[in-house]
Amino acid sequence: MDLYGTADWKTEKHVPVIEIADVIKAGEKTLVTVSVGKEIAHPNKTEHHISWIKLMFWPEDEKYPYQVGLVNFDAHGASIKGPDTSGVYSEPYAVFQLKTDKPGKLIATSYCNIHGFWKYEKEVKVE
Ligand SMILES: [Fe+2]
What we know:
Elements (H helix, E strand, L loop, with lengths): L3 E2 L10 E4 L3 E2 L5 E7 L13 E10 L6 E7 L20 E6 L5 E9 L3 E11 L1
Parallel strand pairs: 1-9, 3-9
Antiparallel strand pairs: 2-4, 4-7, 5-6, 5-8, 8-9
The structure holds fe (ii) ion.
């Protein structure tokens, strides 16, 4: 059993989908969007939700990856009245701005409070 689940994001609602241009320009700011539920919505309830998304970048030929950022999603309907009573929900959607002059791969991970950790990777080419 693997720590991180992986699957096709089009059929598995937990996979954190990375969206970025196929080729980015060296040294220029680039937007990277990471979201869970792009094709199939993941539940967002007090008892079942996505807690966070993390993005890492691992340049080719380097020994260690870098953490780009971590976004927590903290509003899942709970209020002083109980679960799913606030009507306030943070959706699992994050936008990062990345600047690099190195090719490599982006690695996104996410955490569902009852279905564990999920991972997705995407190659980044630089021109
Ligand atoms: Fe889940």
